[in-house]
From TrEMBL:
This is Uncharacterized protein. Gene3D superfamilies: P-loop containing nucleotide triphosphate hydrolases (3.40.50.300). InterPro entries: Coronavir_polyprotein_1ab, DNA2/NAM7-like_C, DNA2/NAM7_AAA_11, P-loop_NTPase, SF1_C_Upf1. Residues 402-471, 514-583 form the DNA2/NAM7 helicase helicase domain. Residues 604-759 form the DNA2/NAM7 helicase-like C-terminal domain. Belongs to the DNA2/NAM7 helicase family. Keywords: ATP-binding, Helicase, Hydrolase, Nucleotide-binding. The keyword Hydrolase applies. It comes from Hermanssonia centrifuga. The keyword ATP-binding applies. It holds the Pfam family AAA_12. PANTHER family: DNA-BINDING PROTEIN SMUBP-2, DNA2/NAM7 HELICASE FAMILY MEMBER.
Length: 798
């Protein structure tokens, strides 16, 4: 930062000091003095009062002062406060939310922070998760750090960065004891709410803990060995992309719910531990040790809340230990886990890669694939091809016929020229993306290629590819799936291919390793590449050619860690569709681009131009409305006439349900159609944009004695799936909401093979706000004959 007016002579405006007591460790420690100050009221004296105390002799001048830092963020993920701690003093510095007012004062305040705190040669900065904090300081406030130490880099065991584990590791064999629950609660959220004392206390205590750890025996030396983060000394060319990756990661993490309401049935109580059986995977119990709030009803009908801890979880089973209350004889009405889920292994690996870059241990653009994605003007040097690859593409050797566009895609995927090291294939709904993948696998293996790994974002998409390989009678493959997804939840999805499945809890078994001995093709999710025991398999089947389905749903930055971790990769094939679901969170985080949104790569994408799923009536509309008329429909499709119907649910009204929406009258219509399909033994699924509606439709199906398991989905969970008939509940009757999202609406409308029934109302979709939506335009193209009344449903006239 450049020269700016000094703030040393400004009057100091601080809140009244308060004191708090640390409750992380079982030791006596002076109460901490905590004060809060706006950055524009910060003075050199107030900073020195924290750093030096009254005597300015807390540390010899030759030894850097240990300064603890901790962040507080807004709900939008912007750094709004930073806690600065030394010894028993903590200063909470709040940043101005509006920098346009008093700009000179803000510049002067940040120069003071830069000069006397963040980049002062006499300070050693310590923080848990220093990487994201350093990036937030840079992106949000233009501030740099020097000699900034990431605490967990010195005190982690086997890569576990959980703060409670890190503190236990740091204190080692000392007499101190860590109160894990208190540490976990404090670090479970970094949201800052100055109106709530627990919020301010949590930030202050985290900064104090970071400042205290260097005092522990052996920790000073351990911390000294950690490569510091020095953003002041980094080039902007390197710093900016890393900061954007780190910011998008933090914003994604902040989108995780801070409270999870569980859907469950009670099993029973023993030793004050209550056992539950989850009924929905998305909110099942997890091994988090987070606080849990249970609403219970006792024997006399009194209802009240009971606090507890999530103590065990396995499959559908979850155990909560109540605190200070006898659970015998009490009925549990609701259970809510408080606190966000921890990072996944893939998220941890990505964060570790970004941290290594910040610590100057890893260059972002060393990898030729990353250099191609983010060109830096330097020559891209590709790795030497293995003996199993050649620049001459092998001939096709597939068991299913391919159309012209599919054949072109497979040939490009088989090519190993430098120009085709990254191959892009855009596949609209029903165009045979898994057919292309299967044809590539058969042809590549026939040509002698090895080390083929097939991946996708979701377990269901990977399963679909596996089923396609089985259908074309290709046998030499294995599918890796997480125990969390498979056990007790989705075994039924793998019934036809169960002998090929290796579950994550079996990775270390000799049997699993033996199964991989001569394996030619491996299937897994992209996130599985972060599994700590995957190296046992990659040693047997090195990752050389990677095919990624659903690539339009994956943020391009998610490839950084895998490409850095597996330098054996020689070829990348991305298959997806940027007209369908985007990376999760993209609507709020503009930096979250998929590979299909990198302009110079998107231009090279091959287009699969014929869809085989939808009846032509629907396929032709989607082609014109979404794909600029480039998508043809199978001329031999068995359904040639009217296939899309709209149910006029007169009087249907949207109702808010928490953060979601529902529509009771539309549910009644859905139930009538579902009952008719089940009676006629037709295969069908139900889709709705809102989870509240999905949940209540599922309950309605149960109550009516209809099939309900694996029947009702929200839109995001159904991409890649299809069924003969699709029933849709739009829910909205006034606002557009979900229907403004073209990509998600495209997914919703393109799942049927024979027919689709959309429950809505004429007033909304024809005469109202829905008329200009993609669904409204579909209704207009289908005409009046496509409309059914509730009387038609009651009489079975459909």
């Amino acid at each position: 930062m450049g020269d700016s007016p000094s703030t040393a002579s400004q009057p100091q405006k601080r809140s009244k000091a308060r004191t708090i007591e640390q409750h992380f460790l079982n030791m006596r420690y002076p109460r901490l003095e905590v004060q809060t100050v706006m950055e524009t009221d910060l003075t050199s004296d107030s900073l020195n009062a924290i750093l030096f105390g009254n005597s300015k002799s807390d540390a010899p001048s030759s030894i850097p002062r240990a300064v603890g830092l901790a962040p507080g963020y807004t709900s939008a993920g912007k750094l709004t406060v930073i806690a600065v701690a030394v010894k028993a003093r903590v200063l909470l510095i709040q940043f101005r939310s509006e920098v346009k007012k008093g700009t000179d004062v803000v510049v002067a305040a940040r120069q003071l922070l830069h000069d006397e705190l963040l980049c002062h040669d006499g300070n050693a900065l310590f923080a848990f998760d220093m990487g994201p904090l350093a990036m937030a300081l840079y992106l949000d406030h233009g501030l740099y750090v020097r000699n900034a130490i990431d605490v967990q880099s010195a005190c982690t065991c086997k890569g576990n960065r959980d703060p409670a584990n890190a503190v236990e590791f740091a204190i080692g064999t000392t007499s101190y004891k860590v109160y894990r629950a208190n540490v976990t609660d404090a670090f479970s959220s970094s949201l800052w709410d100055p109106s709530k004392p627990p919020s301010t206390t949590s930030v202050a205590l985290k900064a104090w803990l970071a400042a205290w750890l260097p005092e522990v025996a052996d920790m000073e030396e351990r911390l000294r060995e950690v490569q510091p983060i020095d953003t002041k000394g980094m080039s902007e060319l390197k710093l900016k992309p890393i900061a954007q990756f780190a910011r998008s990661d933090y914003q994604l993490a902040s989108k995780k719910s801070i409270a999870t309401s569980h859907e469950f049935t009670s099993v029973g109580t023993s030793d004050n531990k209550h056992t539950f059986r989850s009924t929905r995977f998305q909110n099942h119990f997890r091994n988090t040790n987070n606080a849990v709030r249970m609403t219970v009803v006792d024997a006399i009908g009194a209802q009240y809340n009971v606090q507890g801890r999530a103590s065990e979880a396995d499959g559908r089973r979850g155990v909560v230990k109540a605190e200070g209350v006898i659970m015998e004889g009490k009925a549990v009405v609701s259970v809510t886990t408080i606190g966000q889920d921890g990072p996944t292994l893939a998220e941890q690996q990505k964060a570790a890669t970004i941290l290594r870059m910040l610590q100057d241990q890893s260059e972002l653009l060393d990898n030729p694939f990353l250099r191609t994605i983010w060109p830096d003007g330097k020559e891209v040097v590709w790795p030497t091809l293995s003996a199993s690859l050649s620049t001459e593409a092998p001939s096709l050797a597939c068991s299913q016929p391919l159309n012209h566009s599919q054949r072109g895609a497979v040939e490009q995927m088989l090519s190993s020229t430098d120009a085709s090291r990254i191959t892009m294939v855009q596949g609209p709904p029903g165009t045979g993306k898994t057919t292309v993948i299967a044809a590539f696998v058969q042809s590549a293996v026939e040509a002698g290629k090895r080390g083929i790994w097939l991946m996708a974002q979701s377990n269901v998409a990977v399963k679909n590819i596996a089923e396609k390989l089985a259908k074309v009678q290709f046998e030499n493959w294995r599918l890796l799936v997480s125990k969390d997804f498979h056990m007790d939840w989705h075994e039924h999805l793998y019934g036809q291919i169960s002998t090929k499945v290796i579950r994550s809890d079996e990775f270390r078994s000799p049997t699993a390793l033996q199964e991989m001995q001569d394996c030619q093709v491996v299937l897994c999710t992209l996130s599985m590449l972060a599994h700590p025991h995957l190296a046992r398999f990659t040693f047997k089947v090195p990752i050389k050619t990677v095919v990624i389905d659903e690539a339009s749903q994956i943020a391009v930055a998610d490839y950084i860690a895998p490409l850095q971790s597996f330098p054996t990769i020689e070829k990348l094939c991305f298959i997806g569709d940027d007209k369908q679901l985007p990376p999760y969170g993209q609507e709020d985080i503009e930096e979250l681009l998929s590979i299909f949104e990198i302009p110079h790569l998107r231009l090279e994408a091959l287009f699969l131009d014929t869809q085989y799923r939808m009846p032509p009536q629907l396929g032709e509309f989607i082609s014109d409305a979404v794909y600029d008329g480039q998508l043809s429909s199978n001329p031999d499709h068995p359904i040639t006439g009217l296939a899309c119907f709209f149910v006029d649910v007169n009087g249907a009204t949207e109702k808010r349900n928490g953060t979601s929406w529902e529509n009771p009258l539309e549910r009644a219509a859905v139930l009538q159609i579902a009952a008719r399909f089940q009676e006629d033994s037709e295969s069908f699924r139900i889709i709705t944009p809102y989870d509240a509606q999905r949940s209540t439709i599922e309950n309605d199906l149960k109550a009516a004695g209809l099939s309900w398991e694996n029947k009702c989905f929200n839109v995001d969970s159904f991409q890649g799936n299809e069924d003969d008939y699709i029933i849709i509940s739009l829910v909205r009757s006034d606002g557009l909401g979900f229907l403004e999202d073209l990509r998600r609406t495209n997914v919703m409308l393109t799942r049927c093979k024979k027919g689709m029934f959309i429950c809505t109302s004429w007033d909304f979709l024809v005469d109202g706000k829905g008329a200009n939506s993609l669904v409204g335009r579909l209704a207009a193209s289908c005409g009046d004959d496509a409309w059914l009344s509730m009387e038609d449903l009651a009489e079975g006239n459909f």
